[in-house]
Known about the structure:
By secondary structure, the protein is α/β, with parallel strands linked by helices. It is built from 8 helices and 7 strands, in the order E-H-E-H-E-H-E-H-E-H-E-H-H-H-E. The chain has a 7-stranded parallel beta sheet with strand order 3-2-1-4-5-6-7, sandwiched between helices.
Amino acid sequence: MYSDLEGKVVVVTGASKGIGEAIAKRFAREQMKVVVNYRSGEKEADLIVDDIKRSGGQAVAVYADVSKEDDVKQLVGKTVETYGTLDIFVNNAGIEKPSPSHEISLENWNQVINVNLTGVFLGCREAITYMLEHEIKGNIINLSSVHERIPWPHFVHYAASKGGVKLLTQTLAMEYAPKGIRVNAIGPGAINTPINAKKFSDPQTKKDVESIIPMGYIGEPEEVANVAAWLASKESGYVTGITLFADGGMTLYPSFQAGRG
Ligand code: NAD
């Protein structure tokens, strides 16, 4: 637990399931005031809010498609209307649409880039604008991926978007550091969330994925949420512009693990 987080206002985008849900619940346990953003999962978002409230926490569900400029403006507006301020913004929403790269339509390319990269830009821009106007030494956390570093055939739009998130994070971190605003990213490896449910339901595929994780297991969303809590807290107060990989060692060239090479 991080006592400095108590009472802080946080927005988590795409929080109706998976990593976003785990981050929203973790922040609620830190006694933060939480905005659970959703696009399609209204029912799930309401259940998460109920769950948080039943445990004595504070949360509200707010609709926004992060790829739409007006929606993101309204998301920040409703946050401030509800809780009076904004301290931390987590750009978590993300999608993937696997396909051989030469078969990816422009529409599919744009969908992934619009959510994973433009959505992160819009979230950062609106949060930073509010923080600057109100002289808030705020904190932004972007969900990147190990695929900001590791190329990923059939996921070229996804990998390109996460590579973009990496330099977006570093650039904003540098630009707004003098204002006391920190911007960091988290790079999860393979995590047990709905985005991967189909893939990991096949035992052989699951085994194949585990074999490229030095720690030998697929991570849980709560293990990513732990990293988000640390990055949000003042325990990481001198940290900005990094991607903190939560990947069981996936980015460490696992094929060399047995002394090969
Ligand atoms: P998920 O599919 O389980 O959840 C994604 C959430 O984003 C959902 O709630 C979905 O409704 C929401 N969303 C999608 N488009 C949206 C939009 N336009 N506006 C608002 N919300 C939207 O995925 P996850 O595994 O929890 O992934 C969360 C983040 O972590 C993503 O950015 C993803 O790329 C990243 N990530 C996940 C993994 C993994 O293994 N699960 C690995 C690396 C990175």
